[in-house]
Amino acid sequence: MKWARLAQEKLNQELAEQPAVEPEAPAAFAEAPAAKAPLAPPIEPPSAPAYDWQAVLYGTKPAAPVEPPPPPTATPPVTEAVIPPPPPPAVAPTSPVPEPPQVSPAAFDWQAVLYGTRPIAPVEPPVAEAPPASLEAAPAFESPVVEAPEPPAVEPVVEPLVEEFPSAPVAEEEILPVESAPLTVAEVPVEPLPQAETLPALPVAEEEPAPVVEPPEPELPAAVEISPVFEAETVEVPAAEEPPPVEEEVVPSVEAPPIFPPAAEGAPVEPPPSAPPAEPPPESPASAPLFDWRRILNRNRPVEAPPETPAPAAPEAPAAEAAPPAAEPPAAPPVFDWRRFLNRPRTPETPPVQPPVVPEPPPAPQPVVPPPPPPPAAEQAAAAQPKPRFELDAGFLWSAEVLAAQGRRPEDVTVEEISWLQKLRAGLGRTRRSLVNNVKALAGRGPIGPDELEELEGLLLQADVGITVSERILAALQERVRREALPGDQVLPFLKSQLRKQLELEGDDPTGFAPKRGQLNVWLIVGVNGVGKTTTIGKIAALATRSGYRTLIAAGDTFRAAAVEQLSIWGERSGVTVVANPSPKADPAAVVFDAISAAKARDVELLLVDTAGRLQNKKNLMDELAKVRRIIDKQAIDAHIESLLVLDATTGQNGLQQAKVFGETAGLTGVVITKLDGSAKAGIALAIVEQLQLPIRFVGVGEKIDDLRPFNSYEFVEALLSDYDAA
Ligand SMILES: Nc1nc2c(ncn2[C@@H]2O[C@H](COP(=O)(O)OP(=O)(O)OP(=O)(O)O)[C@@H](O)[C@H]2O)c(=O)[nH]1
């Protein structure tokens, strides 16, 4: 017992001594944060280990973004976005005339730089020159992201567009004189662009979750005189049938003009605060686009067909091309050097382009950087411990490979692109997992036979690919198997090539739909309720602004009360002016008429027309849409017109039914698939192309401003059938 007691006492004694250790730990940690604080501010030093992906890679960001990055405090990026001022649309006709935001110089050249102009290779050639590849060296500013959505200079200048269209033009249809409600132009403070990630979902959304059901709006009477005519069709809630007044004449809200003129008076309007002087167009030319759409879109034949593009440059280049490159052997293969990507020099967008700006680095701030102690370590170390939210997981590596397969070099890749692909891949994840796993299991049995083919068809149907497409793919597979055995490991690659074929409409030039420079392009956005039309317009507007297009938005959704407000928010985010008529039940055709007039007067290049959601079986609403289309055709005769149907991917095959009617009414030229990040069955994309014979122009994978990208069949298929999954 004594022994036990003694032992117990000793034990207690030891325990009593232990606690002392703890205090130290916290102290040590406490230092860390302290040290970091000072480091935050100096973002410039390219070598600094602290990789601020957003600031560095999104070179695009204008001044604004700079602040947010460092102190990730929960300050208020949101507030500054001016989101709250929903009703900025000064109703008063006296409001000054906003001007189409001038696109900043560095913006990426959507048409010339990205698409249109250049053939596939142009951008790549530099590859040869790429050799500057000295990893650390800061070669890169070429494409580096610069894309400074700099403050789209807003020229308040408002030419007397007015008289452009004297009174009522010759539109046979009359636009309801919808109240004298003056047309308003939502002033857009020209906020530079995109905070890539910040933009939260539009608040408005909730107001009207807008399901598919026809918005039974209460209302009506007043302006609805004509509505009765069509009531017949809709059994339910005749009253609810809101915007019935489809009929008739488009009386251009002649009042519109008056609205703009005032601004003119405002004299020169120096007010355009933000916009510095700007003869912006300057450096933009060669500037590097944030994402090179042209390359993305043209890259429908990656690794497999490398000969077309890269081939010439890579293999033979060395020999024929000359010595310089000699030293640099790489530059071609699909091997993505993620380290190089991570270590690439940081380029605060715009600045790099302007040499003068460079001098700034030396300023005092340097000293502030004192915390250089950490940098010495080595960039590699930094790379090893990447930044927040950017992980070298399977998604990242896969994205990098896909981009590399398209000829993208680490220096040209942006975080935005990586992020986009990751989102797309994640969005298609559900379908992919099911499809890929089953196909692999099936292929693992050995050579493909009749049983396997049948099973495969079932898998495709489950993915919503549609019967026709499934049959076509199987027919091709059968044909292939007939000629020679198809090894199991070739099944997926074969499927990919088949799917890609199905996604590409014969004769369609995916780069051809980019807005034409120097002329008016009108993009009419249609679809049923809640599919994402307004959101898509906001995203496209942002993209267009960054691409340097003079853009304008027409708030043609006069039915949903919050639509105009929602659009003006997007307008603020993207720096695009919104033309709207706040009066309830305004005739959308009249709004569009006015918007076209304004667009002509301002030399706008891209006019985005929003429309109210409507079910394809509501005749009066479809007639209303037809009227809008007619107005566009008549008033914008020389314009390049695109009519895009927005389809919610989660609606699956149902969406196809809508398309047929919308096609007859609005003359569709393409489709935008939204919500691919949801529980969509990605196969719907294949069915759309096959059944509608319409090209997919954009795909949306989220609610943020940069969650929309031009459709690329290669990326889509890779995301759908990638078996990369290491995780
Ligand atoms: N997850 C996801 N949500 C999206 C996407 N595109 C739009 N949304 C959301 O879908 C909802 C409806 O979007 P809206 O743009 O208002 O749809 P709409 O077609 O204009 O609606 P109506 O005018 O009522 O016909 C909003 O909550 C959007 O944020 C997308 O690609 N992914």
UniProtKB/TrEMBL annotation:
Comp. bias regions, Low complexity: 16-38, 251-268, 316-325
Binding site for GTP: 527-534, 610-614, 674-677
Compartments it resides in: Cell membrane; Cytoplasm
Record keywords, A-Z: Cell membrane, Cytoplasm, GTP-binding, Hydrolase, Membrane, Nucleotide-binding, Receptor
Compositionally biased tracts (Pro residues): 65-75, 83-103, 269-284, 304-315, 348-377
Region of interest called Disordered, as start-end residue ranges on this chain: 14-46, 61-104, 238-386
Topology in the lipid bilayer: Peripheral membrane protein
Gene3D superfamilies: P-loop containing nucleotide triphosphate hydrolases, Signal recognition particle SRP54, nucleotide-binding domain
InterPro entries the record matches: AAA+_ATPase (IPR003593), P-loop_NTPase (IPR027417), Signal_recog_particl_SRP54_hlx (IPR013822), SR_rcpt_FtsY (IPR004390), SRP/SRP_N (IPR036225), SRP54_GTPase_dom (IPR000897), SRP54_N_sf (IPR042101)
EC top class, as a word: hydrolase
Keyword Nucleotide-binding: yes
Protein's job: Involved in targeting and insertion of nascent membrane proteins into the cytoplasmic membrane. Acts as a receptor for the complex formed by the signal recognition particle (SRP) and the ribosome-nascent chain (RNC).
Name of the protein in question: Signal recognition particle receptor FtsY
Originating species: Gloeobacter morelensis MG652769
